[in-house]
Amino acid sequence: MSLEQQVAALVTASNNLTGVVSSKQADIDAKVAAKTAELEAWRQNARSEMTLPFRYGVEVGGDVNTYYPIPIWATPHERCGRLVISRHYGAAHPASLGPDHVAGLVLELSIRGEGWADFWMTRADYYGFAYHQAVAKVRTDLIGRLVWLRGGGMHYDFLADFDLGQGILNYGTEGLKPLMQTDSILYPECPNLPYKGGGFKVSPLTTVDPVWTATILTSTPIANI
C-alpha cells in the first residue's frame, strides 16, 4: 500500500471514529438531560415535602355564600412557621358555583409564635385567588389563628412546617374544625386574659374584609383583633 493509500485509509478511519463519537455524545447528552430533569423534579418534590410536611384536607360545609372560621393550632413558642392554604380550582365545590374553575386559592402565611414576649404575629407573604372569593378574614392571637373560608362543600388543603394539631383540643377548640354556629365560643378554658372567664365568641361571616378582596403581592402584616 502506497503512502497516499495509507493516509487516505487513516483519514477514513478517523472520520468514522468521529462519527461514532458524535453519535455517542448525542446519546450521552440526551441521557444526561433526562437524568437532570428527573433529579430536578425529585428535588422540587422532596423540597416541598420536607419544608411543609404537615398536610391536611379540610372540607367546609354550610352555606356557599357564608365564610366559616377555622381554628389553626398555634406554633410552639419561640418558633417561626410557614402555613399555606390552597385550593385547586377543580377541587370539591357546590354545583351552584359552576362545574369547574371555582375559587382557586393560594394564601401563604408566615407565623411567629412567641406569645409570652408579645412577639406573636401572622404575615401574608402571598395571597392570590381566581374565579370566586374564598377568604373573608384572618385573625391571629397568642393562642392560634382563625381563617374564614367559603363554605358550601368547598375543599381546602392546609400545608405547614409545624404540626397543625388536627383533632387536638386547645383550650376547648378542635384544630382545623370549621365553626358552623353563630357565637361559637373559643378558648373557654383558657386561664389567661383576655380569654379568662369564658373565652370569646366568633361567628360565620357573609361579608368579606376589604383587605382580602384584592391579591397581595408584598408581605402584609395581619392586625391582631
The end-to-end distance, rounded to whole angstroms, is 98 Å
Structural domains: how many: 2
Strand content: 25-35%
Largest sheet at a glance?
Answer: 6 strands, antiparallel
Strand order of the largest sheet: 1-8-3-4-5-13
Strand-and-helix sequence, N→C? HEEEEEEEEEEEEE
Helix/strand class: alpha+beta
Number of strands: 13
Radius of gyration: 28 Å
Q: What proportion of the residues is helical, as a percent range? A: 10-25%
Helical segment count: 1
Protein name: Phage tail protein
General description of the model:
- This is Phage tail protein.
- The chain is α+β, with helices and mostly antiparallel strands and 225 residues long.
- It has two domains: 1-51; 54-221, no CATH class.
- The radius of gyration is 28 Å and the shape is elongated.
- Helix content is 22%, strand content 32%.
Which features would summarize this protein structure in a list?
3-stranded antiparallel sheet, 6-stranded antiparallel sheet, 2 domains, Phage tail protein, 225 residues, alpha+beta, single chain
Tell me briefly what this model is.
This is Phage tail protein. This protein is of the alpha+beta class and 225 residues long.
Topology at a glance:
Layout lengths: L2 H49 L2 E7 L6 E7 L6 E8 L16 E9 L8 E10 L4 E6 L3 E7 L3 E7 L8 E2 L2 E2 L9 E3 L13 E3 L17 E2 L4
